[in-house]
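User: I'll paste a sequence; please echo it back and then give the predicted structure.

Assistant: Echoing your sequence first, then the prediction.
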Amino acid sequence: MIQTIIENLQNPSEEFSPIPFWFLNDKLEKSELKRQMIEFCSKGVNGVVLHPRIGLPKDFEYLSDEYFEIIKFIVNTARDLNMKIVLYDEGMYPSGSAHGEVVKCNPDFASVGIKLTDNPSEGKVIAEYEDGYYLVSKKCGGTIRGIHYGEDDGEHDAPLSADILNPKAVDVFIELTHERYFKHLSEYFGSTIIGFFTDEPCILGRGTHGYYEWTEGLENDILSAGKDPFNLRELFEGKTNDTIETYRNIISKKLNENYYKKLSKWCEKHNIALMGHPKESDDIDEETYFHIPGQDLVFRWVSPEKNRVEGIHSVQAKCTSDAARHTGKRRNSNECFGVCSSEGIPWYFTADDMKWYIDWLGVRGVNMFIPHAFYYSIRDVRKDERPPDVGPNNIWWKYYKNFSDYIKRVSYIMTDSVNCAKTAILCKSGDLKPEIAKDFYETQKEFNYLPYSLLDRAEVKNNRLCIGGYEYEYIIGDLDVDVKKVTKASMVKNVDFHSDIPLKDLRVTHIIKENVNMYFIVNEGDTDINTGIEMKSKGTPVVMDLWKGEYYGAEFSESKFGTRMNLLLKRHESILILFDENYGKYDLPQKRTVISELDFKQVDENKDKITKTYKAFYIKEDNSENECFKISCEEMAECYVNGKFAGVSFFNHEFNIGKYLRKGKNEITVIITGSIANKYSDKNIYYGLV
């Protein structure tokens, strides 16, 4: 089976394509839509999320017949191109209001909140306090971001958000949105159309500072639970108590039952997947309603420079992958790269960053990547709306297939595989214990998050907690069964991978796919790693470079632990080690001769294209084909030898040029393209050789 896996990695399937948000944000011309879709396919992008976005013309009415004429043209074109389509359920976000149409149908369906006020006539009084303040419920005025100019946050025409805790309001949302899509596109459901994306549904809507979530009659639910709404005042003081905990549990249950469950059942009935993501990074209970659990990594919440294993957002990749593992779902997704610009500079998002984020998500189990975003148009101010475009309007688009193939390979290995975690961290929404997970990450010990809400699906066998095909020998959390609690002693035994030196930036997942043991290993740090490692698996280790699609053998020895070899991993680099249990023979990688005497001189600069061109000359004296050279630069480097293209690099810039060299004098040209932020911001970011 190892050869089958290698062949599938060398020729990755369209099934594992990135499925980017496609910002439909200008006057939509059929010829241009088709041109872009053909271009997507040529770059290995075989699916898109159709995302109505701010910038659509005012006279282009959301969910109108004209709207569906365009959407149907896109979907029909996708069918012809063998692309997949994910529909988006809002115009624009957060989901649940049908671009304000739910509230237009019935003003009583507008979002409701509670607030503290000294004016009891401001709303329905829930509680009265001795200091003259009242807890009142009222329409909170929450809005969503709309699809036309004038409908953004704080603007006059921003659509009103709906009360998604109210089942009747949600029914209207489904009728206005999902049923209309099905009416116009039913023939594509379950084939070209694979899912409906719901985007961070928010109970209050946006622009509701000072309010907390509510719905009509919620005080009766709190009273029925034996608590007094009077005690909710501490919400506004940043405190908690039993009543507040009960309140939060009721809110969560209502949201799950009245929103997620309804959407999930509708999608299942119509043979597509509920996709998208909940509002918070640690909403794990909500993930069980998604057929493809998802999260949203935006605003550089985690990044190469910070929060890699700390804070609430550091849990989101494992949140989705572990939810999928325990509920038997093949795929889990992440809406990634959105507004992940560096140093607060719009559009300053490098290809090196993009590769790092793919690895950060993949090694934690994400196997469907939804890049945010590909822009239909960057005309005028459209380029400034949540940049950057990470696809066709960026410098690397010519070579984007490198990224789509890499995403496909990572997604493939993390699909239909199981990781070898023996420890479960018990958790619940809002509490995924990142402070505990940090130690597991930094010592290369695997764990999986297991929500308390799924324990009714689990059983204990031979002192192991079993669920979804996983057997946990150790647990962290409160559970009254005969399973070992994690201790230092048990963690020493629970070792699958060991390095000779401590490596806090190294991430490892041991997965088994089609009975083949594999270790996906990622260097999340900024320094190279060179150390001896040991893995429990036995056989011949085969090293796969998932970026290049190349594989080779490695020097190794057997040990009592398993297999010992050396690990050399550059900054932000990743490898896959597969084990051939039949001890097959594999060629070692060719040793390279590094050319260090190249003297590059700048010969040209094109500020419009953000490029600098350098030339150097090299005298070749023998017939070898193993020469390479290294350079230091940011962002994209293209290499030509004697006028022939010899490769492109986006990080750890090294070019193997031996086969392009001839005896005698050779001209080596390097073209450096800098960040597109130089074009679309007022910053002057250095580019060129350093």
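The chain has a mean pLDDT of 96. The CA atoms of residues 539 and 581 lie 4 Å apart.
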